[in-house]
UniProtKB/TrEMBL annotation:
Family indicated by similarity: Belongs to the calcium channel subunit alpha-2/delta family.
Species assigned in the record: Chlamydotis macqueenii (Macqueen's bustard)
Domain of life: Eukaryota
Its membrane topology: Single-pass type I membrane protein
InterPro entries associated with the record: Ca_channel_alpha-2/delta, VWA_N, VWF_A, vWFA_dom_sf
Protein keywords: Calcium, Calcium channel, Calcium transport, Disulfide bond, Glycoprotein, Ion channel, Ion transport, Membrane, Metal-binding, Signal, Transmembrane, Transmembrane helix, Transport, Voltage-gated channel
Protein name, entry field: Voltage-dependent calcium channel subunit alpha-2/delta-4
Example GO molecular function: metal ion binding
VWFA domain mapped to chain residues: 215-397
């Protein structure tokens, strides 16, 4: 058996070396060795350079948003509210719609739409923005008309921003009255029931920009009087409040009747981060609540004040706003003592009250609680009221920010933009949003702290990662980004989609995957902790890397270099693998010599790599990377921007590998048909992304297309 095996391996080896020409290639590289420079990669320097480039790219996005905020605030300052304003605007659902007499419908004038590659080939209008309204908002409400009229001033700024920075994508203004102005304008399609459910005020970016981090205890009355519809409304209210919380907030829920119980016993006496997993967990538990017994609110209030005080004193939680949400159908007993003991005179905790049901007997009591604790009181008698009434608390919490005019820039965690354009299915892109609040500057209402809305812009993460190109990271190298909550923004092992039938769908927790779930060798969380704290540093680990879609595993030693991207809550990591990943080859070749070899027919470049920037200028979009490189070298397109270092490496590789074509061709001509028809094709790839191939059989005979 051994001699068979040896004979077999010898045979295999000689066929493969003969037809691939690997020995010739080795010799060719050996010949040019004297002129080569081999440079070691300095990981820390690399990660700092990438981080600076990312920072300046993100700063441009922030500047664009700041210009919009300024324009919106000035427009509001100069706008007099007019309750009988008549004004036609482009409603994104009605545009280009005609009635039976072939006239355009009201609010639905002609709106020219053209496909645009920069916006995933959607039909858009890059000269105007248009307005989207959720179904439950009346499209000619005076508040809406005034807001839309005032925000027309943003159109020229949108266009100007896009001209200044062509890498910008969607820019928008979400108003506190409920309309959403989106640039470039698109046609918005309702869902199958004809409903438009998208409400910009429920989106993560809006809520994060409108309020600061908050610790919230929700207290819900589950006494017998809450049975039936009241319980349903109360549950819906809790779920709506939970939906307004994000990773930077902390929460717990207490249900009370004769006694107080935390709806999740494991979270007794603490607050937990309101991340997706915890919110979903709470929603399931809320759904199971039953109404019975008699309600005594004092114990529940006492318990809540204690938790909030402990967290405040220990420096845990959001360290910003604290609030109690009281959901009940009426409060009778004497609760003044509780507030006196725990909340007065400082009133560090706001108390918001939601009176459920149509009864008005207890309204004064419930209102008194809110008004004496810097809160807000609303009565919710139907399910339809819930959304609007819950949103009110955000305006109250944002008041101090508005009065001080703190324009905080916020960056959201990674999310997919599918919700925005569910009507037009497309490749799902991961993005992050940069957003900023817009305040009313009018002197007479300054102390009211009126929030007009939020301006935002999307940044596709792949644009950021283009700044850390693969070829600079060597074999098995990669870059990744994470947030200060430890969640991944972008990582080669983040697989956010799964297949359901033929459709790709996002996994429920795709945007809260922790760094420790993909870099699991980091057992003591040294890397994770350092990156969350925004430190700069270096670490090496032995890792197992799956390749070939998980069919094989490699054992490597990787060096991790990381630093923060200043001005954002993000950190960047760069991974280089020991061995091949540590060095770069630099050859010098003249353009003439290299160009001749680049023009050979069976040569291609990795199209997903960026040798030249072809996606900004419309005239360059049709070029493949190879065509772009050739035009750049011949000087035909002087305004092409290309990566000189990478183009230099390609030229060098083209020259060194050029003799392979002749070698393969000679072999192909001398092949005897029957003996070695098993060899179909030879190909090679270099680390600069250059590929060459040669067929030994007619293309119709290839077994693996």
């Amino acid at each position: 058996v051994k001699s068979w095996a040896d004979a077999f391996s010898g045979e295999l080896y000689s066929i493969v070396t003969k037809y691939s020409g690997s020995l010739l290639l080795q010799k060719k590289y050996k010949d040019v060795e004297p002129t080569l420079k081999i440079k070691e990669v300095d990981g820390l320097e690399l990660v700092k350079k990438f981080s600076e480039q990312m920072e300046s790219m993100l700063r441009r996005k922030v500047e664009a948003v700041e210009r919009l905020v300024e324009a919106a605030e000035d427009a509001d300052l100069n706008h007099e509210y007019n309750s009988s304003l008549e004004f036609d605007y482009y409603n994104s659902v009605l545009i280009n719609e005609k009635d039976e007499n072939d006239n355009y419908v009201e609010l639905g004038d002609e709106f020219i739409l053209e496909p645009n590659e920069h916006f995933n080939n959607l039909l858009v209008n890059t000269t105007y923005s248009d307005i989207q309204l959720p179904t439950n908002v009346y499209n000619k409400d005076p508040d809406i008309l005034n807001g839309v009229y005032m925000s027309e001033a943003l159109n020229p700024i949108f266009v100007d921003n896009f001209e200044r920075d062509p890498t910008l994508t969607w820019q928008y203004f979400g108003s506190s009255t409920g309309f959403f102005r989106l640039y470039p304008g698109i046609k918005w399609l309702p869902d199958e029931n004809g409903v438009i459910s998208f409400d910009c005020r429920n989106r993560g970016w809006y809520i994060q920009a409108a309020t600061s981090p908050k610790d919230i205890v929700i207290i819900v009355d589950v006494s017998g009087s809450m049975k039936g519809l009241r319980m349903t409304i109360a549950k819906h209210t809790i779920v709506t409040i939970l939906d307004t919380l994000g990773e930077n907030d902390f929460v717990n829920i207490i249900a009370y009747n004769d006694y107080v119980h935390f709806i999740e016993p494991c979270f007794k006496g603490i607050l937990v981060q309101a991340d997706r997993d915890n919110r979903e967990h709470f929603k399931q538990l809320v759904d199971e609540l039953q109404a019975k017994g008699v309600g005594t609110v004092n114990k529940a209030l006492t318990e809540s004040f204690k938790i909030l005080r402990e967290f405040r004193d220990a420096g845990q939680g959001g360290l910003c706003n604290q609030a109690i949400m009281l959901i009940t159908d009426g409060a009778v007993e004497d609760y003044e003592a509780v507030f006196e003991k725990y909340n007065w005179p400082d009133r560090k905790v706001r108390v918001f009250t939601y009176l459920i049901g149509r009864e008005v007997t207890f309204a004064p009591n419930v209102k008194w609680i809110a008004c004496n604790n810097k809160g807000y009181y609303t009565q919710i008698s139907t399910l339809a009221d819930v959304q609007e009434n819950v949103m009110e608390y955000l305006h109250v919490l944002s008041r101090p920010m508005v009065i001080n005019h703190d324009h905080d820039i916020i960056w959201t965690e990674a999310y997919m933009d599918s919700a925005l354009f569910a009507s037009q299915a497309q490749s799902l892109l991961l993005m992050t949003t940069v957003a900023m609040p817009v305040f009313s500057k009018k002197n007479e209402t300054r102390s009211h702290g009126i929030l007009l809305g939020v301006v935002g812009s999307d940044v596709p993460l792949r644009e950021l990662l283009k700044l850390a190109p693969r070829y600079k990271l060597g074999v098995h190298g990669y870059a990744f980004l994470n947030t200060n909550n430890g969640y991944i923004l972008s990582h080669p092992d983040l697989r956010p989609l799964y297949k359901e039938g033929k459709k790709l769908k996002p996994k429920p927790n795709y945007n809260s995957v922790d760094l420790s779930e993909v870099e699991w060798e980091d057992q003591d969380e040294i890397l994770r902790t350092a990156m969350i704290n925004g430190e700069t540093g270096y670490l090496s680990m032995d890792v197992k890397v799956p390749v070939d879609k998980g069919k094989r595993v490699l054992f490597l030693t990787n060096d991790y270099f990381f630093t923060d991207i200043s001005g954002t809550p993000f950190s960047l990591g760069v991974v280089l693998s020991r061995g091949h990943g540590e060095y770069i080859l630099l050859g010098n070749t003249s353009v003439e010599e290299g160009l001749h070899d680049l023009l050979q027919p069976d040569l291609s470049l990795a199209n997903e790599w960026i040798y030249c920037i072809t996606d900004i200028d419309p005239d360059h979009r049709k070029l493949s990377q190879l065509e772009a490189v050739i035009r750049f070298l011949t000087g035909e397109e002087p305004d092409l921007e290309c990566d000189e270092e990478l183009v230099q490496e390609v030229l060098f590789d083209a020259v060194v590998t050029a003799p392979m074509e002749a070698y393969w061709t000679t072999l192909a001509l001398n092949m005897s048909t029957e003996t070695e028809a098993a060899v179909e094709m030879a190909f090679l790839g270099t680390r600069a992304g250059l590929m060459r191939s040669a067929l030994y059989v007619g293309s119709e005979k290839i077994s693996n297309r």
